[in-house]
Write a structure and sequence with these properties.
alpha+beta, Alpha-Beta Plaits, 2 domains, globular
């Protein structure tokens, strides 16, 4: 038996999330609505002796993408020899491509049997992409209809969050983002998962350390004439957040709070209160959860990278 680390990327738009669903009451079956299920289906082409069970380093929700994530899997060949990792990568990508699945194996590597892609990860970096209209409709316009009349490059649909806010102050967003850096109880910024998690009841479970938040100008991924029109219409921004681990929907809630601040729906005091009074009741309902389409798992960090 040999263990392999798969470095993967994917577009999560059409998937229910990365994690497969296991219903113990039913006959075991592959969940092809998840990234994990599709990977395990693709791994069947190698016909290992053992049952295929992938392990995830990070969980992403429906609609969230990954530029780099990792899984590990144990595979045993009939002859007991390890699989060639270059062949493993190529065959998996060919199999996924035949099924028209937006999943790519970046590389494969043989690792120690004691290696665990989740527990040995030293950190994770998430990227959130959003774009703000340079010439948004005014408050006097029929704002809802005008917002939908605005140009959005088709290549960016479900890849970026587009704002048609009448005003947006990126300097306030930059300054307020540093309130989240450091150790905090992020209970206010955690959504409740439907999955059972016994550790969630631990009083320290919601304490997390944000190592770094950076906000910098982004860019359109549109092509040809759409690229020029997108650049003329929007200011693109990238928010990068790095920590060892995150709570359920924590990144999207943090970004939602920052966007609400930049749009003028809340002020810095609201963010301070949500951070210093950690409770689900402290959540300011003027803050909207940032859509999944703009979120990317950018990198899973290990000691050697």
């Amino acid at each position: 038996m040999h263990r392999y680390l798969l470095n993967i990327s994917y577009i999560g738009t059409t998937f229910r999330g990365i994690q497969k669903t296991v219903n113990k009451a039913e006959q075991p079956r592959l969940d092809t609505q998840s990234i994990q299920g599709c990977l395990e289906l693709a791994l069947r082409v190698f016909h290992p002796v053992n049952e295929i069970q992938t392990v995830l380093s990070s969980r992403t929700d429906a609609g969230v993408h990954a530029l780099h994530s990792t899984v590990h899997v144990d595979l045993e060949r009939p002859n007991g020899q390890p699989y060639d990792t270059t062949t493993l990568t190529g065959v998996l990508n060919r199999t996924l491509d035949k099924q028209r699945l937006p999943i790519r194996v970046l590389s494969s590597q043989l690792v120690a049997d004691t290696f665990h892609c989740r527990y040995h990860a030293t950190g994770r970096t998430y990227l959130y992409r959003f774009a703000v209209n340079k010439h948004p409709p005014s408050e006097e316009d029929n704002f809802r209809n005008k917002a939908y009349e605005a140009f959005v490059p088709v290549e960016e649909i479900d890849r970026c969050y587009f704002l048609q806010s009448p005003s947006f102050d990126i300097d306030r967003v930059r300054a307020a983002s540093q309130l989240f850096v450091g150790v905090h109880d992020f209970r206010t910024f955690m959504s409740i998962s439907r999955q059972k998690n016994l550790s969630r009841d631990h009083p320290m479970f919601t304490v997390r350390k944000i190592d770094k938040i950076s906000i910098r100008p982004g860019g359109a991924v549109a092509v040809a004439p759409n690229a020029a029109l997108a650049a003329a219409t929007y200011n693109y921004w990238d928010i990068e957040i790095k920590a060892k681990s995150f709570l359920y929907k924590q990144v999207r809630r943090i970004v939602g709070a920052l966007i609400a601040l930049g749009s003028g729906r809340i002020d810095e005091r609201c963010i301070y209160q949500m951070l210093t009074i950690p409770s689900k009741n402290s959540w300011d309902h003027r803050v909207l959860l940032a859509p999944a389409c703009g979120l990317y798992l950018c990198r899973v960090h290990y000691r050697n990278n």
